[in-house]
Specification:
This protein is α+β, with helices and mostly antiparallel strands. It has three domains: 153 residues, no CATH class; 77 residues; 257 residues, Regulator of chromosome condensation 1/beta-lactamase-inhibitor protein II (Methylamine Dehydrogenase, Chain H). The protein is 15% helix and 34% strand. It contains nine helices and 32 strands. Strands 14, 15, 16, 17 and 18 form a five-stranded antiparallel β-sheet that branches. It has a five-stranded antiparallel β-sheet with strand order 19-20-21-23-22, with no helix packed on it. Strands 2-3-4-5 form a four-stranded antiparallel β-sheet, with no helix packed on it. Strand 24 and strand 25 form a beta hairpin. The longest helix has 16 residues. The N terminus is likely disordered.
């Protein structure tokens, strides 16, 4: 607490009298069945799906919270994890990365792939900005940034980071590896990149010929050029597939289950290191291919007619076939498929109509069927989005309803303003809204925030026209001074039921954000045509909310003396982006 020595006489009992904000009543909820998906990723023992509106959902093994942000050991039906997500990868060891639509990279899981090794991240943490793609192997991470630089970190025992001089140590600090990279794929202990000229380069473990250089070796000491005119590449445990710009599919690496070519064909030979059947150079497998996905012991490819083809091991029914025989060559298994992602024992596909289908092993709920029994036939997977509906939402303008429901779901809206959202908000109501936003943002009860961040000088002052503990807490936190501030032992005046203006809102929003430790003094002068009509004390607040896009005017005017409604206040707080305000 600021000036803590000045309140040493203030007892804990007195502090506790300033009760925390009351809990919200139980939310009214609506259920929406989501059937349209834009992206899917099959992890080692889990599946992630991204809806068309960028919601991230997950199901499966939850060791180290690698699937969902709960303490459950397994998730058997999909749960929502985050929003605003464009892609995701998850790998062995309990590690998950996802990229948001703003190109920020986030991580959660065991902690072994980021910063404090061994310390689990129980909720997503931001890793870096300006990321286009991420891929993870068994101990290493590669990231392509929006400027086409390649970063990497993690294990380099087999030179899977492409660094011959770096040795076999582990480093969890991202380092720049090279420029001019547009695509990356990681296998267990090896990696591939595609450069902007569409050349394909490989580096790392090559004991099963997975780099494709025509011979076996423990590893390559530096990146090696493999092919030209490559559009995409997929790497798995020890085999690799690449699609060229003409739709030709090539494969190489481990083929002991015919995951590249028929293991008994002349294209396969025994590795001089592992003794397993392998292919050491790229071999053409199919034409007219749009995309490919490598599972541990099998391969799946989508052709330009949207048909899905598979070959290799079908031990767990991952080919949607109850006959668990090995497919020694490509066979068509589904039609109308837009995207596929496969792992060692299960697969997931998005069809051309946006529906999601899963099949194969369901251990620990890996394919989200609500139990642990697998399926040899594709099953459509739906997710149910449960959204809170604020009481009285029908009184809000259409433009405000989404923000109000979101704020209600987050617990920002106090009981007194749940309804009649078009009404002008009072000074007391705005104080309560600001405090609820703080408790949500800091994830602490009000009493803790007040004690830790309140100004000790203000704990001995009151207002003559209110004993509302929320208003007093807002005063102690510096959010408001009332219409006449307390001074020299004399109580101030707050006017709790007074109507609220836009300039007052701007000032109190700025003061609320200050509680987070944000420096609000550097905002440039606002460019509104009517700034001369604003009170001098309101200029810093108006400058601040304008600079950060928190409040905007209309037609170049701010209208400082105009009233501020409940719905405007709620939506404004709900839309404050703390990730922009807070230092990284």
């Amino acid at each position: 607490m600021k000036n803590l020595k000045k309140i040493t006489a203030l007892s804990l009992a007195a502090l506790l009298a300033c009760s925390p904000i009351a809990k919200l009543p139980k939310s009214i909820a609506s259920e929406t069945v989501v059937a349209a998906f834009s992206n899917v990723f099959a992890g080692p023992d889990n599946t992630f799906m991204i809806t068309e509106n960028h919601q991230l959902w997950g199901t499966g093994d939850n060791n180290a919270r690698k699937t969902a942000l709960t303490d459950a050991s397994s998730i058997t039906t999909p749960v929502k994890i985050s929003e605003g997500v464009s892609s995701i990868v998850s790998g062995y060891g309990g590690n998950t990365f996802f990229i948001k639509t703003d190109h920020t990279l986030w991580y959660y899981g065991s902690g072994s792939y980021w910063e404090n090794i061994g310390a689990a991240y129980r909720s997503p943490v931001k890793v870096m900005d300006h990321v286009k793609q991420v891929s993870i192997g068994d101990g290493h991470v590669l990231v392509v940034k929006t400027d086409n630089t390649l970063l990497g970190w993690g294990r380099n025992t087999e030179r899977q980071l492409g660094l011959a001089s770096y040795g076999s140590t582990w480093d969890n600090v991202p380092m720049k590896l090279m420029d001019d990279v547009i695509y990356v794929a990681t296998g267990n202990f090896y990696s591939f990149i595609i450069k902007s000229d569409n050349s394909l380069w490989g580096f790392g473990a090559n004991d099963n010929g997975q780099i494709g250089i025509g011979s076996f070796s423990n590893f390559t000491n530096a990146p090696v050029k493999i092919m030209d005119n490559i559009a995409m590449v997929s790497a798995s445990a020890s085999h690799t597939m690449a699609v060229d710009q003409n739709g030709n599919l090539y494969g190489w690496g481990l083929s002991n289950f015919s995951q590249v070519v028929n293991k008994d064909s002349s294209d396969a030979e025994r590795s001089t290191i592992t003794g397993l059947r392998c292919v050491t150079s790229p071999v053409k497998i199919l034409d007219d291919v749009r995309t490919v996905s490598t599972g541990g012991r099998h391969t799946m490819a989508i052709r330009n007619d949207s048909s899905l083809w598979a070959w290799g091991s079908n031990a767990h029914g991952q080919f949607a076939d109850s006959d668990i025989k090995e497919y020694t060559g490509p066979q068509k298994i589904l039609d109308n498929v837009k995207q596929v992602s496969s792992q060692s024992s299960h697969a997931a596909a998005i069809k051309t109509d946006g529906t999601l289908w899963v099949w194969g092993s369901n251990q620990d709920g890996a394919i989200g069927l609500g139990h642990s029994q697998g399926s040899y036939t594709p099953v459509q997977l739906r997710v149910v989005d449960v959204k809170a509906i604020a009481p009285g939402i029908e009184t809000a303008a259409e433009w405000a309803r989404g923000g109000i429901n979101s704020a209600f779901e987050r617990g920002i809206i106090s009981d007194g303003i749940q309804g009649n959202y078009a009404a002008v908000i009072t000074r007391a109501e705005f104080c309560r809204l600001a405090l609820r936003w703080l408790t949500y943002t800091l994830d602490k009860p009000l009493i803790s925030i007040e004690f830790e961040l309140g100004d000790g000088d203000r704990f001995f002052h009151t207002f003559s026209d209110t004993t509302d503990t929320d208003i007093i807490a807002a005063y102690r936190l510096g959010i408001t001074d009332g219409v006449a501030a307390p001074a020299s032992g004399s109580p101030g005046v707050f006017n709790p039921d007074g109507q609220f203006t836009r300039e007052q809102a701007a000032t109190m929003i700025m003061n609320t954000v200050k509680v987070l430790g944000v420096n609000t003094s550097h905002a440039p002068p606002a460019d509104f045509a009517d700034m001369d009509a604003a009170s001098s004390w309101a200029h810093p607040g108006i400058n601040f909310v304008r600079a950060y896009g928190i409040m905007n005017g209309s037609g170049g005017h701010f209208t400082p003396g105009g009233v501020f409604t409940r719905q405007e206040s709620i939506v404004t707080f709900n839309n404050i982006k703390t990730e922009i305000l807070l230092p990284q």
